Amino acid sequence: MYLAIDVPGHGKVVVDIGYGGTFYAFLSAEQLGLDVRSSKTRDLVSAASAVTEAVKKQFKLHHPESEDLAFLYGTILTDGKDAFSEEPTTNICVFADEQVDRSPTGSGVTARIALQYHKGLIQLEQSRTFQSSTTGSLFTGKAVKASGWCWTFPHLKGC
Ligand SMILES: O=C(O)[C@H]1NCC[C@@H]1O
């Protein structure tokens, strides 16, 4: 799902909320006037943290099975390249108390894959590669149809 959020100091942005074991807000760094590959990490962290705080204030999350999991863990700024490509798409994950992941983030890329699949940008079993903007490390992942999936998320395509 997506939300229009007013981020103090940055104005209105549109974020996707995704879940991959924990919830993240996703948006292109470009919406914040930044470049995920070349902007200073400090600037990316400040902007991502402002988004996290704004989403927390302006939107209440729910989890279908446990309210303990109904919290926003952080914000992931991307290069905006969500449409399928063989090329890696780059992101930076700013989570918890302004921590920056060295990797593309397991739970984060899981959520990105779920969002890309939900939007029809990738098909089941179609792999994508994700790159950390901080270290360049790579994760590859794909959406698969797993048992139990349709019980948990019956509103999703394919159920
Ligand atoms: O990759 C992960 O999912 C973990 N690393 C940072 C955020 C999560 O805790």
From TrEMBL:
What Gene Ontology molecular function terms does this protein carry?
trans-L-3-hydroxyproline dehydratase activity
- Annotated Pfam families: Pro_racemase
InterPro entries, per this entry? Pro_racemase_fam (IPR008794)
Q: Which domain of life is it from?
A: Eukaryota
Keyword flag Lyase: yes
Specify whether Lyase is a keyword of the entry.
Answer: yes
E.C. numbers: 4.2.1.77
From the UniProt record, list the reaction(s) this protein catalyses.
trans-3-hydroxy-L-proline = 1-pyrroline-2-carboxylate + H2O
Give the record's keywords alphabetically. Lyase
Subunit info here reads: Homodimer.
Question: Which family, according to the similarity comment?
Answer: Belongs to the proline racemase family.
> What is the protein's name according to its record?
trans-L-3-hydroxyproline dehydratase
* Gene name linked to the record: L3HYPDH
